[in-house]
Automatic annotation (TrEMBL):
Its main location: other. The keyword NAD applies. One of its GO terms (biological process) is fatty acid beta-oxidation. Keywords: Fatty acid metabolism, Isomerase, Lipid metabolism, Lyase, Multifunctional enzyme, NAD, Oxidoreductase, Peroxisome. This is 3-hydroxyacyl-CoA dehydrogenase, NAD-binding protein. It comes from Pyrobaculum islandicum (strain DSM 4184 / JCM 9189 / GEO3). Belongs to the enoyl-CoA hydratase/isomerase family. The chain holds residues 1 to 291 of 662 of the full protein.
Length: 291
C-alpha cells in the first residue's frame, strides 16, 4: 500500500489524513500529544460515519480508520518509506521549518514534502531542506472541511519543479479534488488573499456601525449565494487562523487595513467554533452548529 505522512492532527490535518485513508493510502498521522491524536481519530470516525450514512463511502468506516496510524511526536519515524508528506502544523514558520528539516532527514530522497500553509511562503519553508530536496517542496493547500471542500491549491515556490507540481495535482485528483496551480508564491495565494479582503470589508462595515453581523451574513448567504457569511466562516475557520493569515500577509507586503473587531476576538481568545464563542456562540465547543 502506498504510504503518506500527515504532520499535525488539528482541524485541517485530521481531514487531510481522512482523505488519504479513504483513497487507500496508509497514513501516519503525527501530533505532539496523544490527546490531540485521540480527538483527531474521533473526529475522523464521526466524519466517516456521516459519509457512510449518505452512501458516500465505498467501504466500512473501520477499514478506512485502520489505515491511519497515530504517531506521537516523531516526524522522523512517520516519514520513513513515504512517497508524500503533508505538513499541517501551526502557522509558525519556525515550527514548519523544523518539521521540514526533520522530514528531509528521514524521508526517502524521492519523497515530496508538501505544506498546507494558509499564507506562509513556500520558498522560505524550502530553505529548511537540503539543496537536492528543494525542487520537491510545494504547497498543497486544502480548505476546511477538507473532506467536503472540492478545491486544492497547488503552490509553486521558487525552487519547486514542474514535475513536483504535476505529481501533487495528481495526488489531489486521486482524493477527488479539483486543483488550481498557483504559479507565483504570493501572500495568501489565491483564495485566502481574496477572502482576507472580504473579511476585512465585512468587519469594517460592522466596526463603523453601517451594518450588523447578522445583516452582513444574511446578505452574503441569501443574496450573494455563499454557503456561509463572512463572520460565520471566520468562526468556522478559527479566528486565530484568520489573525495568523492576516499577520503573515501583512509582513509580506500585502496592503491591508486590519479590522479591530477581528483583532479583539484574537486577544480575547474567542476563536469561534473551537473555543465555543467568536462572532457567534456555539453551545458545544468544537462542534459546528448554525447559530
Ligand atoms: N465530514 C462529513 N460530513 C460533514 C463534515 C465532515 N467533516 N462537516 C459537515 N458535515 C455534514 C454535516 O454534519 C451535515 O450532515 P447532515 O446532512 O447529516 O446534517 C452536512 O455535512 C451538511 O452540513 P451543514 O448542514 O452543517 O451545512 P452545509 O450544507 O452548509 O454544509 C459546509 C457545510 C460544506 C461546511 C458549507 O457550509 C460550506 O461550504 N461552508 C463554507 C466553507 C468554506 O468556505 N471553507 C473554506 C474556508 S477558508 C480555508 O479553509 C482556508 C484555510 O487556509 C484557512
Amino acid at each position: 500500500m502506498p504510504k503518506v505522512a500527515v504532520i499535525g492532527a488539528g482541524t485541517m490535518g485530521h481531514g487531510i489524513a481522512e482523505l488519504f485513508a479513504m483513497a487507500g493510502y496508509e497514513v501516519a498521522l503525527v501530533d505532539v500529544a496523544d490527546e490531540y491524536l485521540k480527538r483527531a481519530l474521533q473526529n475522523i470516525e464521526w466524519s466517516l460515519k456521516k459519509l457512510a450514512e449518505k452512501g458516500q463511502l465505498k467501504e466500512d468506516p473501520s477499514a478506512v480508520l485502520s489505515r491511519i496510524r497515530p504517531v506521537v511526536g516523531d516526524v522522523c519515524s512517520a516519514v520513513v518509506g513515504v512517497e508524500l508528506m503533508v505538513e499541517a502544523v501551526v502557522e509558525d514558520i519556525e515550527v514548519k521549518k523544523r518539521v521540514f528539516a526533520e522530514a528531509d532527514r528521514c524521508a526517502p530522497p524521492e519523497a515530496i514534502l508538501a505544506t498546507n500553509t494558509s499564507s506562509l511562503p513556500i520558498t522560505e519553508i524550502a530553505e529548511a531542506v537540503k539543496p537536492e530536496r528543494k525542487t520537491k517542496v510545494v504547497g498543497m493547500h486544502f480548505f476546511n472541511p477538507p473532506v467536503l471542500m472540492p478545491l486544492v491549491e497547488v503552490i509553486k515556490g521558487q525552487y519547486t519543479s514542474d514535475e513536483t507540481v504535476k505529481k501533487v495535482a495528481e495526488y489531489a485528483q486521486k482524493l477527488g479534488k479539483q486543483t488550481v496551480v498557483v504559479n507565483r508564491d504570493v501572500p495568501g495565494f489565491i483564495v485566502n488573499r481574496i477572502l482576507a479582503r472580504v473579511n476585512e470589508a465585512a468587519c469594517w462595515m460592522v466596526a463603523r456601525g453601517e451594518a450588523t453581523i447578522q445583516e452582513v451574513d444574511s446578505a452574503l448567504i441569501y443574496k450573494a449565494g455563499l454557503p456561509m457569511g463572512a463572520f460565520i466562516l471566520m468562526d468556522y475557520t478559527g479566528i486565530d487562523v484568520i489573525c495568523f493569515i492576516g499577520d503573515a500577509m501583512l509582513k509580506r507586503g500585502f496592503k491591508s487595513h486590519p479590522c479591530p473587531l477581528i483583532l479583539e476576538k484574537c486577544q480575547q481568545k474567542k476563536y469561534g467554533v473551537k473555543s465555543g464563542e467568536g462572532f457567534y456562540k456555539y453551545p458545544a465547543p468544537g462542534k459546528f452548529q448554525w447559530p
